[in-house]
């Protein structure tokens, strides 16, 4: 799990309260322990959580332990990062991407 204090562990049980009912922009990393590309982008997600603290809620959801939420959003490949605004999905990134690509998405959605 994440080492950043700015990352919320998202589960099937708390998704509604943490993300669906959240105001503003949220970013959720759908990942699994065994997934190499997930481990590759994990540090980027943590850095962005720290850099955007107070502006963006950042969460990580383990798809092996929380299949209900992963299925609800049709997460078929990991890593998948979903971006939410006021609880609604507004964008997604599938696969390992550079940190700058995720930062651009956050900037885009914070400015919208």
Would you kindly provide a written description of the structure presented here, covering whatever features stand out?
The protein is of the alpha/beta class and 112 residues long. It has 4 helices and 5 strands; from the N terminus they run βαβαβαββα. It has a 5-stranded mixed β-sheet. β2, α2 and β3 form a beta-alpha-beta unit. The chain starts with 6 loop residues before the first strand and ends with a helix. The model has no long low-confidence stretch (mean pLDDT 95).
Q: What is the strand and helix layout of this fold?
A:
Elements: E1 7-10, H1 15-20, E2 25-31, H2 36-51, E3 56-62, H3 67-72, E4 80-85, E5 88-94, H4 99-111
Parallel strand pairs: 1-3, 2-3
Antiparallel strand pairs: 2-4, 4-5
Output the keywords:
alpha/beta; 5 strands; 4 helices; 112 residues; five-stranded mixed β-sheet
The outline comes out as: globular
The count of β-strands is 5
> How many DSSP helices?
4
Report the uncertain regions: none
Largest sheet: 5 strands, mixed
What is the straight-line distance between the termini?
30 Å
Q: How would you sum up this structure in a few lines?
A:
The protein is an alpha/beta fold and 112 residues long. 37% of the residues lie in helices and 28% in strands. It contains four helices and five strands.
């Amino acid at each position: 799990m994440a080492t950043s204090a700015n990352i919320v562990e998202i589960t099937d049980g708390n998704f509604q309260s943490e993300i669906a009912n959240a105001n503003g922009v949220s970013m959720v990393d759908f990942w699994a322990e065994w997934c190499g590309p997930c481990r590759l982008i994990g540090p980027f997600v943590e850095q962005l959580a720290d850099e955007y603290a107070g502006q963006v809620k950042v969460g990580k959801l383990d798809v092996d332990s929380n299949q209900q939420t992963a299925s609800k959003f049709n997460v078929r490949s990991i890593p998948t990062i979903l971006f939410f605004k006021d609880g609604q999905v507004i964008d997604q990134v599938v696969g390992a991407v550079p940190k700058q690509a995720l930062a651009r998405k956050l900037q885009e959605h914070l400015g919208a």
